[in-house]
Amino acid sequence: MRNSFRTIQISLYCDKFICKYETKPDTVMTQKSVSDLRVKILSALADPIRLEILEYLGDGERCVCEILPAFQRSQSTISKHLNILYEANILERKVEGKRTVYRIKDPEVFDLIRMVDSLALKHIIQLAEAGRILEKSLYNRS
Fold it and tell me: Cα–Cα distances in Å, from 43 out to 103, 115, 120, 124?
């Protein structure tokens, strides 16, 4: 009889990650599942308030009672955003009596945000250069 722990196989093929993860003979994590996880994480990061929350939590764990006043939004709005980040496995949450405390689960999320910042900066630089070229062409025609 085989162990219940199986193998994890990850490979890069034609610029697509293919991941198979087996826990039981009939359970396989497919490419669609990996894509779904990517979408869940990236969607959670695709909101300015959630990005600000992550920045705020970058200094360490915080109680919801500290997070709420920092954002001047309704309790339900902040709770919704915190839950989205939690469900995407970006935040950890623990309940301490009446307090709920959140913290960043994996600081690598900030590496991802820095990569996006780098892409955005490259795009801004390209747009600025295009603007300079356009401006020169407009002034040369006069």
Answer: 19, 16, 17, 23
Q: Which helix (H) or strand (E) holds 9?
A: strand 8-13
Contact between residue 134 and residue 96 where contact means Cβ atoms under 8 Å apart? no
Residue 21 maps to a domain: no
If we measure between CA atoms, which residue out of 66, 65, 69, 59 comes closest to residue 103?
59
pLDDT at 3 over 50: no
Q: How many domains does the chain fold into?
A: 2
- Going by pLDDT thresholds of 50, 70 and 90, the confidence category of residue 11 is very low
Together in a domain, 57 and 98: yes
For the entire predicted model, the pTM comes to 0.71
Residue 57: count other Cβ atoms within 10 Å of its Cβ. 20
Helix (H, G, I), strand (E, B) or coil at 10: strand
My answer on whether 96 and 115 are in the same domain is no
Q: Which residue, 49, 93, 42, 45, is CA-closest to 68? A: 49
129 shares its domain with 100:
no
The residue with tokens 């839950």 is 83
- Each residue of 86-96: b (16+ CB within 10 Å) or e? eebebbeeeee
